[in-house]
Amino acid sequence: MSASLERGLNAFKEQIDAPVAAFFSSCVRCGLCAEACLFYTETDSPKYTPIHKLEPLRRVWQQEYTFWGRYAKLFGLSKPVTDEELTDWETLVYDSCTMCGRCSMVCPVGNDIAYMIRKMREGMAAAGHAPPDLIGATQRAVTIGSPMGVKLPALQAQIRHAEAELGFSIPVDVESADYMLLLSSMEIMNFPEFISAIARIFKHANVSWTISSEAFEATNSGIQIGVSEIAAELVNRIVTAAEKLRVKSVISPECGHAYMAIRWEGPNLIGRPYTFKVVHILELLDDLRAQGRLKTTGKEMQRLTYHDPCQVSRRGGVVQQPRNLMNMVAENFVEMPETGTMNWCCGAGGGVSSNERADDLRLKAFNRKKKQLDAIHPDAIVSACSNCRIHLEDGLEEYGMDMPVLSLTETIAEHLVDNERSGSEE
Amino acid sequence: MSETELLLWVRGPALQIATLVFLLGVVVRIGEILMLGRKKNLAEARGSAVAGGLRTVLSRMIPDRGTLRRSTFNVVAGYVFHIGFFLVLFFFAPHILVFQDVLGVSWPSIPTPVIDAITVVTIIALLAVLVHRLQHKVMRFLSRFQDYLVWLVTILPLVTGYLAFHRVGIAPPTMLIVVHILSVELLMVIFPFTKLMHAFTLFMARYYNGSIAGYKGVNS
Predict the structure, then answer these.
(1) Out of 1.10.10, 3.90.1690, 3.40.50, 3.90.70, which CATH number does the structure's domain A295-414 have?
(2) How far does Cα A416 stand from its chain's mean position?
(3) % helix, strand, coil for chain A, step of 5
(4) What share of chain B in percent tops pLDDT 70?
(5) pLDDT number for residue B1
(6) Would you tell me the crossing angle of helices A386-398 and A367-374 to the nearest 10 degrees?
(7) Of B56, B78, B205, which is closest to A23 when you measure between CB atoms?
(8) Which of A47, A49, A104 sits opposite B209 (nearest CB)?
(9) Beta carbons within 8 Å of B81's beta carbon, 6+ residues apart
(10) Contact (CB<8Å) A67/B207
(11) How far is CA A252 from CA A229, A235, A284, in A?
């Protein structure tokens, strides 16, 4: 056995806990998870059945942690997991799964398959079977601080640009602010309007906030590739900066996996609870709305729908907030069939979009989103994840659909009541 | 060994051995799951893990609408054979007598002609499920030897029970009962080593799934 395979199998063993054992013990091979997975429904290829993507992990569980399996292994009755197999499974685990967790919602025996894929990636990465592009992105995240190679000067340039447009300054490294804002590289590079939108909303609602020059990157390649040590280091940078600035809360921006990483996995990765809170930007905006601090005027008259980013809604729990916010600014808000926690993934989360090898597959899988959109024919899609947005735009173009993709935060910002002008009314 | 002696053996020592393997096996299997443990979640909770877990244990009894629409046959046939098997096992008068003998408690039975009909429906559902497994692209792809073995040991008690009750077949009535009891014992012995364990572990799986989601404030 090669050293890397041994490392991988040991990582599998380490990852198997009581839930994983209960899940594998319960699978009856009914195949219902296939119908919940856009990589199966849009390709018709059984190898994309979610539970099948876990086969090597299942065998390690069976051979190491079941009474019968241990004896079978002892007498050479079971087939050990090989390097060749892991090579075959690499594309199943990374290219054809976004860890969207839709399968975890339909399994009749209750298996949380996405939970296991996340764990399986730890073993795959340890065994040297992670996609080259994800390895590159992870290396950039560690050495440069961003998977896309975005450095501080790039952010500073965008901030200066936003300040020129806004006419007021954006707080950087302000101590004891209530909120510290994180950004995804994609927001900094592709959607810099997000920064000025946030700045306008926070000025309007009188929110005390800051950006840290030492930790502004929200995404976490470590959890996408499945290397907990790296994921922990990336989380630690944020924790260190937040504690140094003594902020009360950290804001996760419009990015699905960033929210998963910093809100739900973070404390478990670094092994201790935070001294601050983590909120998703939509949670904060909805809070401000409930407190009456967020006031909007006028509504979008076009037919708008909301695309739930998987890690924000199904896997993250921010489901109702975006709907409250949509209703604030959309006169004609229509839900897609199977929405909220049952929404279909765009097809590019969980590292799939950073993995060029998976490009054709993710565009093929987008056909599922097309069908959902075709059922309601919206004029535009609103979402809250820049990765979803990029891929939605990509997919719409691929399928010849003409439909703008908007950020919910930016849409809210466009409808803010002008405090100065309406000040006399309040 | 005479027919009567054989019957006494399958009803006596053989049943005891099968019960022992079944109970010990189930306890060991559940024990080895629990022993793996799980790490404490250090992230601040948004909802209740326990409430979410319990909720999902119940809510997964009902399929989501999309699954029902896309996999109607799979869902309906699944319901029919599970419910049918359960009713025949626990509500056929002679079975209740066996349970009373062992457990000391009794409960009302379902009239025999009704049980008879349920048995036929359950057997048909199981046959349909097998045909479906062989024909459905995904199910055939996922299936292993064990899936067919488990199907066989599940349908055998139904078929042998039906034959024994109606006294059909080449064997004398006593032998039909012997074969029926043996088929049940086969099911019991195989149970802890196969996916039949899902009858117990699915409650654990659903609980874990629901608690992971519930902690984050999601109803799964």
Answers:
(1) 3.40.50
(2) 27
(3) 55, 10, 35
(4) 100
(5) 75
(6) 80
(7) B205
(8) A104
(9) B122, B125, B126, B129
(10) no
(11) 21, 12, 10
Reported as a pLDDT band with limits 50, 70 and 90, residue B2 is confident
pLDDT per residue as tens digits for the range A299-349: 999 999 999 999 999 999 999 999 999 999 999 999 999 999 999 999 999
Q: How many Å apart are CA B163 and CA B180, to the nearest integer?
A: 9
- pLDDT of residue B169 exceeding 90, the answer is no
Q: How confident is the model at residue B130 (pLDDT cuts 50, 70, 90)?
A: very high
Domain A135-289 and domain A295-414 have a common topology: yes
Q: Quick check: B41 contacting A, CB < 8 Å? A: yes
Contact A395, A402 (CB under 8 A): no
Please tell me which of the candidates B34, B75, B208 has its beta carbon nearest to residue A112.
Answer: B208
Tell me if B139 and A30 make a contact (CB, 8 A cut-off): yes
Q: Is B32's CB within 8 Å of A29's CB?
A: no
Confirm or reject contact between B97 and chain A (CB < 8 A): no
- Taking an 8 Å cut-off on Cβ atoms, the answer to whether B218 and A314 are in contact is yes
Per-window interface: A 82-111 vs B, CB < 8 A: 104-111
In this structure, which amino acid lies at residue B202?
Answer: L
Look at residue A59 in the predicted model and tell me its pLDDT: 96
Decide if pLDDT at B56 tops 70.
Answer: yes
Residue A70 or A8, more confident: A8
Q: How far is B36 from chain A (nearest CA, A)?
A: 5
Taking contacts as CB-CB distances below 8 angstroms, the residues of chain A near B68 are none
Q: Does B18 touch chain A (CB under 8 A)?
A: no
State the smallest CA–CA distance between residue B166 and chain A in angstroms.
Answer: 32
Per-domain residue ranges for chain A? Answer: 3-130, 135-289, 295-414
* Mean pLDDT of the region A20-41: 98
CATH class of the A135-289 domain in this structure: alpha beta
CATH dotted code for A3-130: 1.10.1060
Q: pLDDT-based confidence at A77, cuts 50/70/90?
A: confident
Rounded to the nearest 10 degrees, the angle between the axes of helix A83-90 and helix A113-126 is 120
Residue B102 has a pLDDT of: 87
